[in-house]
Description:
This protein has 32 helices and 17 strands. By secondary structure, it is of the alpha/beta class.
Amino acid sequence: MTDTVDTVPTDREVARAVTRAEAGKAIDAREATALLAARGEHLERLMAVAARVRDAGLEAAGRPGVLTYSRKVFIPLTRLCRDRCHYCTFVTTPGHLERTGEAPFLTPDEVLKIARDGAAMGCKEALFTLGDRPEDRWPEAQQWLEEAGYETTLEYVRAMAVRVLEETGLLPHLNPGVMSWAEMNRLKPVAPSMGMMLETTSRRLYETKGLPHFRSPDKDPAVRLRVLEDAGRLNVPFTTGVLVGIGETLAERADALFELRRVHRAYGSVQEVIVQNFRAKPDTAMRHDDDLPLDEYVAAIATARVVLGPQVRVQAPPNLVDLVECRALVDAGIDDFGGISPLTPDHVNPERPWPNVDKLAALCADAGFALRERLTAHPPYLGLPWLDPRLQAHVDALRGPDGLADPDARPSGLPWQEPDGGWADAGRTDLETTIDTVGRSSDRRGDFDDVYGDWAQLREQVRSSSTVERLDTDVAAALRAAERDPAGLTHDQALALMTAPEGPELEAVCALADDLRRDAVGDDLTYVVNRNINFTNVCYTGCRFCAFAQRKTDADAFTLSLDEIQARAHEAVAFGATEVCMQGGIDPEMPASSYFDIARAVKQAEPGLHMHAYSPMEVMNGVARTGLSIHDWLVAAKEAGVDSLPGTAAEILDDEVRWVLTKGKLPASQWIEVVTTAHRVGLPTTATMMYGHVDHPGHWVGHLRTVADLQRETGGFTEFVPLPFVHQSSPIYLAGVARPGPTVRDNRAVHALARIMLHGLVDNVQVSWVKLEPTVLDQILRGGVNDLGGTLMEETISRMAGSTQGSRKDVHELEQMAARVGRPAVQRTTSYGRPRPVI
C-alpha cells in the first residue's frame, strides 16, 4: 500500500537516497519517494546520476549521444469518451459536436487526408488518439458506428489503420485506451506499436468523489495494469507512462514507477515510459490547480530514469515546458521527446504548440547530443515476435540501417497483405530472419530469469501452493453427498474428495466414480482410430511448459506443406482412421487463411475424415489475423471442413495459474468464449485440463466446476480429458518452478472427480495413455474412465515434453489395455457413434 498522505521526506532521507543512487545501489520504493523530493543541490546530484544511467543505456543500444523523436500526425478519431477525467480538454460531448457541426467520429476521408498531408510533409507515424469506448456512454456514437458499418470503436480503429497503411504508408500507433486481451490481439497485425498511459496507481484518485479519476471506469489502476501485462503477453511494443501532479502523493508516484518497472522486467514490452507533467487547462474541473513546478517535474524524470534503469527509453513531451526548459529534461536523463508534428496540434494539450525541431536539435547539440528521428516502434521492436509480418514491408521502407528512421525515406502506400510465398510453399526452410530482437539468451534459464526474477521466492510460492490443508469436511460425508447428487457437490465437498488420502478413502472415491461410469455408459472402453497431424511447431506464444514450440531458425523447426498434410491424411485412412486431429504452433508468418486452407486440403484429399481441428488459441490467432469475429471465423472454419474442436489450451481455467504457465496464451475468459461460441455454431468440442505443475487441487475443482457450468449452458462438450503435466523436458520444470508432474494419487483422484462432478453432464471421461505408465493407467481405468482416446499415430507434443509411452498405438494394443482391466474395447467415432467405412 502507498501513503495516502503526502509526507515529505526529510532532507536527511533525501541525501541518503541520492548518495545510494550515486553509488549504484538498488533503490527501493521508500528511497525513490525520497528522490522524488530532491531539490537544490540534491536534485543536481540526482540529475547527474540519471544522466549517467541514460548515457550507459544509449551506449548499450549502439547509439551513444543520440536522442530521438518521432515525426508524426495526430489523428483524433473521436473526442467522445465514457470517462470523466477532471483535467481533460480533449473529450467533448455529442451536444457540443452538434453545435460546432462536427460528427462523432472522423470519416475515412478525413482520416486519410490527415495521413496523406502528413506523409507529404515527411511524417512517418500516424498516432490515433481517441476516447475510451464512447459507444458505451453515448447513443450518438453507437448510431454513427452502426450507420458506418462497424460494431465498436475498436473495430473502426482497426479498419482505419489498414487504410492508412495501404494508402499512405504511415505507421499507425494506436492509443485507444483500455483494451481486452482479445482486442489487443486483433489490433496487433495493423500497428507496429500501441500505447496507454498508466498515469497513476493511486486508487484514492479513482475511488474518492471529487478527485480526478472518479467515475472514470477506464482509470482503475488495476485495469490499466492488466492492459500493460496483456501487451507483454502478446509481444506488443507498448508506450506507457505516468502523469505527474494530478494529486498523487510522492509515495503513489514512486509506486507507479515501480509497477512499470515490474511489467517491463516480466515481459520486456515497455518500449518507452513517458513522464508527463500536469498543466492546468481552462474549462476543466482542475483549471484552478497549480501546474507542476519545473524542479518537481525534473526530479520525477530523474527518479524514473534511476528506477527504470538504462534499457528503458524515458520520454518527456517537449511542448509541455518552454523550449529553454527542455535542456533540464535532457539533463535529467530523458532520451526521447516523443511525437512532434509539423501538421497537427497536440490534441490532448492544444494550448501547447510543438517546438521547432531545428531549434530543439540545436538545444540538444548544445548539450552534446544529436537529435534523430525514429519510427513509432523503437529499434529493438522492429522484427519478430514484436512485429506482425504483414507490417514488415511498411517498417522496412522507412527504417535506416540502425533501426532509426531513414531521413531520406518518404512513406507511400503498400498493400497490407501476407508475406511473400504462402502456405503451399511452406516447408523446412532456412529463413534469414532475426528472431530474438530483444537480445534475450536462448538459454532457457535466461529466458525465465527475464520473466520471474526471484527464483527462490517463486519456487517457494509454488511449493507451498501445492500443499492444500485438509478441510474439516469428512470424506465420508462428501461421499454420501456425491451418492445423492454427484454433479451438485459444493466446492468444499468436491475438494474433500479430490484430496482424499491414499487408502480406503481414495479407493472409495474411485469406486463411486466407476459405479457412476457404469451407470452412464456401461463397461465398454471406447477408442477412436485417428492420427495427429502437427502441421507446424513454430510458435511464439511463450508457454513455459511447452517443449514442442520452436522458433523459425531452430534446427528442429518444421512447417508442413499442404501436399504433405494431404499425404498424411491419405496415410491415416489407409491405417483405418476416421479422424485427424490438427493442431500446430502459433506462427505469425503463416497466412491468415492457413487454417481454412488446411481444412479444405484435408477434406479434398479425404472427404470422409472427421476433422478435429484448432484449439481456442489457434482460433484466436485466426481471428486476429483475419479480422473476423470469433463467431464468423468459426462459421468459416466449419464451412472449410472443420467438424469439431479440441478443447486444449485450457490448462487450468484460472488466470493466476495461467500467467505463470504461459506468457502470451489466451486468458481463461477467452477460452470460455471460444468454446461457447463453437457450441452455438454447431461445432462440438472436447474439454481438457492440464494439471500437476504450479496448481493445486482447489484449482482442479474450480476447473471442473467451470466445465460443468458451461455444459449446462451449451451441451457442446463431447468428452473431458485430464492431461497430466509431463515435466521431463518442460522449460518451466527445468527452470525449477514447476513440480515434476502429478502423483499417482493425484492422477487417480482427478479422473475420478471428473466422472463424479460431470455426472449427467459429460458422459465421456478420457485417459491420455501417452502420458501414463501402464500400471498407473490400469488403476485409472478402474476409477471412472470410459475412453482411451485415439491411436494417434503421431503424437509430437507429449513426446517432445519427455513422455516415454510412445507416439502411437495400434488397435490391438488398445484392446490389450482394455483386457488388462477386464473390459471390452470398442471402436467409436469422434462423436461417440459407431464408425462407418471411410468414403
